[in-house]
Structure formats: C-alpha cells, structure tokens
Amino acid sequence: MPVRMDKVTLVAFSSIVIALLVMGLKYAAYLATGSVALFSDALESIVNLVTALAAFWAIQVSRKPADNDHQFGHHKAEYFAAVLEGVLIVVAALLIARQAWISYNLHLTPENTMQGLAINAVATAINGAWALYLFRFGRRRRSPAFIAEAWHLTSDVISSVGVIIGLVLVVITGWTVLDPLVAVIVAVNILWSGWKVIRDSVSGLMDEAVSRSVDTEIRTIIAAEAEGALEVHDLRTRSAGRATFIEFHLVVPGSMSVAAAHAICDRIEVALMKAVEGAEVSIHVEPEAEAQHHGVLVL
C-alpha cells in the first residue's frame, strides 16, 4: 500500500527532488562550457540540495508533539536547519570566490557558451517558480525552514541571472575576464543572503518577541475579551517556528469565583488562538491586590 504524505512533507520532499534536478542541469551547463561563472552556479545548487535535506529533517522534527524531554514542543528545530543553510551559503560563496581567482590567473576561456546558457536558463526558471511557491507556502505555515529555503533559492536565481548576463557579455565583447568577475559578484550576493538567513534564524533561537503590529493586535484582543477582569500586566511573547507563546497576568476582583475567572481566561484564549496562528496562551490569574496599574489595562 503506497505511503501518503501530508502537504508539508510533500512540499519538503519536492524541494529535494527539484534541487537534484536543478543541480544536474547546472552541472551539465558547466561541463558544456567550462565557465567558472556556471561552475559557481552549479556549486550553489549543491548547497540547495543540502539545505533541502536539512529542511526536510527539521520540519519533521518540529512537528513532533511535546514529550517529557521537550515539554514545549520541537518548534525550534527549523531554526537550526535555517542556521545551517546560512552557514552553507557562506561556505559556497568562499569556494566560488576561490574558483574565480584560479580562473582569472589561468585565463580560462568558456566554450559552447550559448548551449550552457540555455541549460542554465531552464534551471533558473525552475528555481524561480519554486522559490515563489515556497515563499507563499512558508509564510502561510509560518515555517522558518521553508522561508529560509525560499530566500536561498531567490539568491540563487539572482546569481543565475547575473551569470547569464555576464556570459552574454563575454560572447558579445570577447572579454573573458568578465567570467570570473561575474563569479565574484555571485559570491558577494550569496554572502549577503547567507548573513540574512543566519541573522533571522538566530533571532528565533533567542526567543524574539512578536512584531509590533502583532503585539498591538494581541493587546487589543485581550482588552476586548477580558470583560469582568480589572487589569492585565506583564504581557510577554516569543516566537518559536510556527508557535507563538503568549503569557500574561490577569487581575480579577478578589470576590470573583474560580469558575468565573476561568471563563474569562477561556474567552481570551479562544480569541487569541483564532487571531494568531499557532498561539500557545498561558494566563496567571491574580486577585485585585496584585494590580500594578500598567500594561494592558482592562476597565
């Protein structure tokens, strides 16, 4: 009986297949021409494959339910994959720069340029279409691994377009120095992409709070749904992959029953979970003597 994949697993597996296809096409383009610029593009495709494999692993781990050893879940696994992607991008950029220097010193001249460009253009189109899909899918699922992979593919597409333009100029002008020069430009672009992926991933690992707009939305919802309470204070948030952890203190009249206070908490929690995908809400109920008169005031 065939094994059925859910949508997330299917997309992650498809990234591996597409990375293999694109890597094969770009390496064929390099073999046909001997161009160091096309070599740089092929080398980055190897990184694409490794990052697709890392994303596949991380997504499977992040979706595991909480257990005794990981009582808050496995959401942050995706950030580790994203950091790995960023590091590999940087390594690829350094290797490309090294190969460009070798090509410049040896005065290597590309051959069969138009044939190689045609193959590379097909691979670039595939990467571009898949990057757009991953952006939409990753943002909808709030997946750091998919978004990091989409950014990486986008940098690859930009690099590939630069390679194509550079090699067309080589054909038109006969200036072979443009081949290693384009490779260096590709390397710099990849370095920037790698830095961005690492920076965003480290922010997630450091329990960065939600954006200001989401924080405002959370405060508005709490104020609207906390009828019967007196005050909310010490509101804190943090993001971990697809999960958003929200915690705060809810001050209620000292005479209020536990059941009534619990009903207010339930109402707030339901509203937050509807508005903020993946919300994990923790509310600490306090009597009015604990009021601090700051934070989200509920009148």
Give structural notes.
With 299 residues, the protein is an alpha+beta fold. It folds into two domains: 7-205, Alpha-lytic protease prodomain-like; 212-297, Cation efflux protein, cytoplasmic domain (Alpha-Beta Plaits, 2-Layer Sandwich), CATH 3.30.70. 68% of the residues lie in helices and 10% in strands. It is built from eight helices and four strands, in the order αααααααββαββ. The protein has helices at residues 7-33, 36-62, 77-106, 113-141, 144-173, 178-205, 212-225, 258-275; strands at residues 231-240, 243-252, 279-287, 296-297. It has a four-stranded mixed sheet, with helices on one face. α1 packs antiparallel against α4 and α3 (77-106) packs parallel to α5 (144-173). The longest helix is centred in the first third of the chain and has 30 residues, at 77-106.
- Provide the β-strand percentage band: 5-15%
CATH architecture of the largest domain: Up-down Bundle
Q: Tell me the CATH topology of the largest domain.
A: Alpha-lytic protease prodomain-like
How would you describe the shape? elongated
The DSSP helix count reads 8
Count of spatially separate domains = 2
CATH class of the largest domain: Mainly Alpha
Helix content: 55-70%
Annotation, overall tally of beta strands: 4
Q: What average pLDDT do the residues reach?
A: 79
